[in-house]
Amino acid sequence: xxxxxxxxxxxxxxxxxxxxxxxxxxxxxxxxxxxxxxxxxxxxxxxxxxxxxxxxxxxxxxxxxxxxxxxxxxxxxxxxxxxxxxxxxxxxxxxxxxxxxxxxxxxxxxxxxxxxxxxxxxxxxxxxxxxxxxxxxxxxxxxxxxxxxxxxxxxxxxxxxxxxxxxxxxxxxxxxxxxxxxxxxxxxxxxxxxxxxxxxxxxxxxxxxxxxxxxxxxxxxxxxxxxxxxxxxxxxxxxxxxxxxxxxxxxxxxxxxxxxxxxxxxxxxxxxxxxxxxxxxxxxxxxxxxxxxxxxxxxxxxxxxxxxxxxxxxxxxxxxxxxxxxxxxxxxxxxxxxxxxxxxxxxxxxxxxxxxxxxxxxxxxxxxxxxxxxxxxxxxxxxxxxxxxxxxxxxxxxxxxxxxxxxxxxxxxxxxxxxxxxxxxxxxxxxxxxxxxxxxxxxxxxxxxxxxxxxxxxxxxxxxxxxxxxxxxxxxxxxxxxxxxxxxxxxxxxxxxxxxxxxxxxxxxxxxxxxxxxxxxxxxxxxxxxxxxxxxxxxxxxxxxxxxxxxxxxxxxxxxxxxxxxxxxxxxxxxxxxxxxxxxxxxxxxxxxxxxx
RNA sequence: GGUCUGGUAGCUCAGCUGGAUAGAGCAACGCCCUUCUAAGGCGUGGGUCAAGAGUUCGAAUCUCUUCCGGAUCACCA
Length: 597
Fold this sequence. Notes:
alpha/beta; globular; Rossmann fold; RNA-binding; five-stranded parallel beta sheet; Gyrase A, domain 2; Isoleucyl-tRNA Synthetase, Domain 1
């Protein structure tokens, strides 16, 4: 039982004993005391004033006295206006610190054989172009959410649905066939995904000039877009693909192979991974089957032209197409097929889709459709809907070349980290390998923290220049604090100081120190809330607060030169516990922390 | 137009399940390294919490209206 529940229960008892008012513990308002007042926990008294028939101050004093008499953990109290501020005994904090320090799994719920399974889909790239800034937010969020849910006791399967078929990849294939001169990643030295992306751009340019030619001949733009030879050829290629044309299939496999090799490099560098990858080329037929079933059950209907639709007007939505008149499937159909396979493969309790908020409508429809088609879990799917990433100039547009490429961005961050380390002379005693690995860790830490510290639901602005800042509320600031603590701990070990646990809890410690312990105790609640709300930002903000507080302590107090051995030992335990939580919390964000930097 | 979503310091963001004088970082200015890593610490200035009304002992937070942004409403994914 933690402190809040204990005290909450006692407040309820106090109110009932003193005023005969029955209150649920959950209704008692307990909050952290504001820094400018004395105490650590505050009870809001206003709700009891009516029953007490006394002034808020008087009521607060009576409840405070009751609490103090009934629980020795409360060392003092004061009442200001309607707020009862409780001071918690130092002994309590010190004993709590000891518990935290010896618990290597602090803040996490262990995953057991009985844990239920959550499947988290993220990344979900198309195979016609490399990953960009928007994908980075998706990948970082997906990975972090998975780590956070594991820490909350879920078995997690990370999955990726690769959109490897469709007109988009045919465009790249066609352009390569027409203009590629047999170029390969090997012959050009380009990453495969970038090479394929290059031909996607070439297709778009050639297609545009065809449209221009046609419109100059007096054909309407709409008509030109449909009849341009290139788009017709791409559609023919898609048709050939669907009919298993060996030549097209071979080209498709080759070029997708290049892309996957490229993606693997990007994923590895980003530090994300998947337990199971699905490909739409393998799932879209399953969707068709399910749609046929829906037709038989009259959940869906067929129009005269042969297309298949779902009527969702009863749910307040529109009618939705599931199969085109020519029998080919759309996005929704594929998602149904993918969902079917996944639930056949895994005992999924909860399905989470990490997909941008531009697809809110799609997932609303998918949820209803899955439900109608007889998937019992359809209604409970979670669309983890995150906001778009914008640049200071506005939205990224591939056609205007304002897309921030994922590989380029990571490289830039790492380069900056390396240069900064050199300028500051921080790593003069390290080997080249160490310098490189720290540069990677710091550069990526900076990028990841920058993207994860903001509320995922909100759209965010990414300023490439500002994000490279390594001071203030940034990943490197947190990493630096960790490195400084580790440095002190190494020195303590060199001096032969023992700090496995506190040998005495009868110490007089400062307010700053007890506040730091209080912050440490909040970690489990933060992890839980981050899991409930699917918000890595809560973890990020918590770690930042902790680190800021620790840095003040580090500045104001000496650790190794403290003369009182018990206090010295206490501070080492406090520092080590802080470092452990920084490391553990940052790991939930997918960010590694260095031993030195 | 319908639906969803956002508007907090010059900029980027916390705070939003109602509680005390609304917080950080960046940017600006000033101070602190013979002391455990200055990627640090301290200080100064900076706000009609988009606007109005309502509910309440109490509203940045809840409700309604208005204004301004964004997303979506495809036989694209």
